[in-house]
Amino acid sequence: MLKALHIVAAGLVLLPGLAAAAEPSAAEALAKKNGCFACHTIQKKVIGPAYKDVAERYDGEKGAVDKLVHKVKEGGGGVWGSAGMPPQPQMKDEEIRRVVEWILTLK
Known about the structure:
By secondary structure, this protein is mainly α. It is built from 5 helices and no strands. 54% of the residues lie in helices and 0% in strands.
């Protein structure tokens, strides 16, 4: 009986962490709100590259966050193929930075 109580107690301690892991991050929610998932997903290329591929490409690159913030804000193309990314002027710079920093954690 005591062992069963320990198991239940351990589950209650871990449960909030599991729920938080299942919820999207604030940065992911920003990306969804601003339509980023229309062209990107985390795992697979759609129109634009998968976010995990972006994270791998820019892993350890000095200045990557600033470079990508600029690219999201102004638009760009040619790095991932012929499809260009339209500019995203509706997003504030700090929102773009949060999304880019989140993307770079997905490697």
